[in-house]
Design a protein that fits this description.
The complex is a heterodimer.
Chain A lengths: L2 E6 L2 H10 L2 E8 L2 E12 L4 E8 L4 H6 L4 E10 L2 E14 L6 H8 L17 E20 L5
Antiparallel strand pairs in A: 1-7, 2-3, 2-5, 3-4, 4-7, 5-6, 6-7
Chain B lengths: L5 E4 L6 E4 L1 H10 L13 E2 L5
Antiparallel strand pairs in B: 1-2, 1-3
Classes of the chains: A alpha+beta, B alpha+beta.
Chain lengths: 152, 50
């Protein structure tokens, strides 16, 4: 027989989880159309904001979705043995002007993993790299622990 | 930002914007805020006084 235990994560546990990870799946919505992409991010435990660098090209689907500060969800998850943990941040994603950054924010982006330019055929000057910030309206997390019966 | 003291041009992604002293120090420490490329003094130019 398999049993499971489910627990809501505390705010501090969510903060530690997001700070420890650096990749997740960002989902955007426009009208009835969904769009989801794997991204790398940086997380500020004090403000609970997520910082992203997103790369797009002129005719990319991503750029279409990012065009109007869309509603967004960021999902970060982990499987560790019999424990499954997921955190979901819900909010609006906003573009950030590099010239308006504080030194603290510059440092924050410095800790954000660089986009995987290697997978792009174009050089960096030909790519449109923009900074974004997700300040979540809702931040939740839970851990599910599965106890598997060896004799089953 | 206080009064800009330098213009930053990233050597890799070519993004450019004006920075003050504190932002300049942060870029040298953290790298290009847009693409993450390392930043050196030569990438930050002060305005030329005529």
């Amino acid at each position: 027989m398999t049993t499971k235990r489910e627990a809501e994560m505390s705010a501090s546990a969510i903060d530690a989880f997001l700070a420890r990870h650096e990749t997740g799946v960002l989902s955007l919505a426009r009208d009835d159309a969904p769009y989801a992409i794997p991204i790398s991010y940086g997380y500020d435990e004090d403000t609970r904001e997520t910082f992203l660098r997103l790369v797009s090209t002129v005719d990319s689907e991503k750029r279409e979705f990012l065009g109007s500060d869309p509603d967004a969800r960021l999902v970060v998850y982990e499987e560790d043995g019999e424990a499954y943990t997921s955190v979901v941040a819900v909010g609006t994603i906003e573009r950030v002007d590099p010239a308006e950054l504080t030194p603290e924010r510059i440092a924050q982006y410095g800790e954000t993993r660089r986009p995987l330019f290697e997978i792009w055929a174009d050089g960096k000057p030909d790519l449109d790299i923009q900074l974004y910030r997700l300040a979540p309206d809702r931040l939740t997390g839970r851990t599910i622990t599965v106890d598997r019966d060896e004799g089953e | 930002m206080t009064t800009p003291t330098h213009t930053f041009v990233c050597p890799e992604c070519r993004h450019s914007f004006e920075v003050d002293d504190a932002m300049r120090e942060a870029l040298l420490e953290a790298g290009c805020v847009v693409c993450g490329a390392p930043v050196v003094d030569a990438d930050l130019t002060a305005p030329t006084v005529e």
